[in-house]
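Look at one record.

>
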Amino acid sequence: MSKKEVMEAVANEVKACRKCRLGDTRTNAVPGEGSLDATILFIGEAPGYWEDAKGRPFVGAAGKLLDTLLSEINLSRSTVYITNVIKCRPPKNRAPSPTEVETCTPYLKRQIKTIQPEIIVTLGRHATSYVLSEAGTKEAAGITKLRGKVYSVKLFGLPVSVLPTFHPAAVLYNAKHKDPLKRDFQLLKSLTAKSQQGH
C-alpha cells in the first residue's frame, strides 16, 4: 500500500470509530492533515470546538497562532503534517482520559510509521508524555521543564528528534508562554536546516 492509501484507510477508520464514548459525542472526527512526505510532524492533544465542527486540526484561535509561528520560520501547513493524540473532541475540551489515549493512539502510531518524520514537535503535556514514553524516555517533569530541549530517540523503530513545546492554546490563556514558544520554533528552524543538510 502507498502512503496515501494507508493514510486514507486510517482517516476512514477514525471517522467510523466508536471504540470509546467520544465517538458518540463528537460532531466530526479529526484524523489530521498535511504532507505525507513531511519531515516535521506536529502532534497536539485533542480537537477543540472548531476542529470538531470542521473536521480539521488546529483551525481555531490556536490554529491561527500555529500558522503564524510556521510562517515566521518559512514553513506552512502544506509542508508539515498536523494531528492529535486523540482524534475526537472530549466534551467541554476536558483532558483525555488514560483509557481514551490508549484506545486512540494506535491510529497515531500508524500515522507516524507511515509518514516517517525526522522531527516530531509535541504540543503540550499529553502529546509529549505519549511520544516520550513510547520512545522509552521516562520524563516525569511537566511541559515547562521539558520544552525547548531536543530528544534524539527511536520511536517505533524510527530515529526521530522530538521537540516538546507549549500547546498554542496554552499561550492564548497565558501570554508569558509566548516568547518561549517562539524560541522553540526558532530551534525547530535550526533543526530543519540541519535535517536538510543531512540529505
About this structure: The chain has one domain: 3-197. The two ends are 25 Å apart (CA to CA). Residues 3-197 form a domain with the Uracil-DNA Glycosylase, subunit E fold (CATH 3.40.470.10).
